[in-house]
């Protein structure tokens, strides 16, 4: 399901085009016409973006903004209003709004601002990778230590992927050789030891907290404090 947008606007001739436009963009859209309904809606069904008119019939939009923030709402709030004064703009931002759009406005501009708010809030909500934590993107065949990529060869990546999929469990040398090289591989098993050695060196040089541990006579195990995500 796409992002959810809540339109808080008491004038139907403004609200209906907004709702239709946003729905055509693929958003899930809710509409309420009073401040109290908006606060109740946010309590029950949080939104990613709130498009908030200031001139509501029951509660001023600034008060709705303030109460929503005090209640813990962390989505984006865009105020739309016929009040064009700089003071109103400053007060709105002080009350917790993220953007401010004066009426009349074009629907294309509003759509662009909604997209920008979604990008901004998504970035703020996503936790930054932690340095030293091993992260494996299997689909892209890439490995990271926090935000830094660890450059691995194809065989090194395959070995690490198998070990990570069996974290804290011993994977036998035979299985690694069969899965990574080929079950009909007739070369020396020292090839595995060389690959493991290079893999260890690369992970350690990037500060990865996880370690590839050898279990004598059996195989290898990936262990560490932080689970791969």
Automatic annotation (TrEMBL):
UniProt keyword list: DNA-binding, Phosphoprotein, Two-component regulatory system
Occurrences of domain Response regulatory (ranges): 4-118
Residues in OmpR/PhoB-type domain copies: 125-224
Name the record gives this protein: Response regulator transcription factor
Sequence positions bearing 4-aspartylphosphate: 53
DNA-binding region: 125-224
Listed Gene3D superfamilies: 3.40.50.2300, 6.10.250.690, Winged helix-like DNA-binding domain superfamily/Winged helix DNA-binding domain
SMART domains reported in the protein's UniProt record: REC, Trans_reg_C
InterPro entries for the chain: CheY-like_superfamily, OmpR/PhoB-type_DNA-bd, Sig_transdc_resp-reg_receiver, WalR-like, WH-like_DNA-bd_sf
């Amino acid at each position: 399901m796409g992002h959810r947008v809540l339109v808080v606007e008491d004038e139907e001739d403004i609200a209906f085009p907004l709702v239709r436009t946003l729905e055509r963009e693929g958003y899930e859209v809710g509409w309420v016409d009073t401040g109290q309904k908006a606060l109740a809606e946010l309590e029950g069904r949080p939104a990613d973006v709130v498009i908030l008119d200031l001139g509501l019939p029951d509660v001023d939009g600034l008060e709705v903004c303030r109460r929503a923030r005090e209640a813990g709402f962390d989505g984006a709030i865009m105020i739309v209003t016929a009040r064009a004064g700089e003071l109103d703009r400053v007060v709105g931002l002080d009350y917790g709004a993220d953007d401010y759009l004066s009426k009349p406005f074009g629907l294309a501009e509003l759509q662009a601002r909604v997209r920008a708010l979604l990008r901004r809030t998504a970035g703020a909500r996503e936790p930054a990778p932690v340095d030293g934590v091993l992260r494996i993107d299997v689909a892209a065949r890439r490995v990271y230590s926090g935000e830094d990529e660890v450059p691995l060869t194809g065989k090194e990546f395959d070995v690490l992927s198998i070990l990570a999929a069996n974290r804290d469990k011993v994977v036998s040398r035979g299985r690694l050789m069969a899965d990574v090289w080929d079950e009909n591989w007739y070369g020396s098993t020292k090839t595995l030891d060389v690959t493991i050695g290079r893999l260890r060196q690369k992970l350690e040089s990037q500060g990865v907290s996880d370690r590839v541990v050898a279990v004598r006579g059996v195989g290898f195990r990936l262990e560490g404090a932080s689970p791969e995500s």
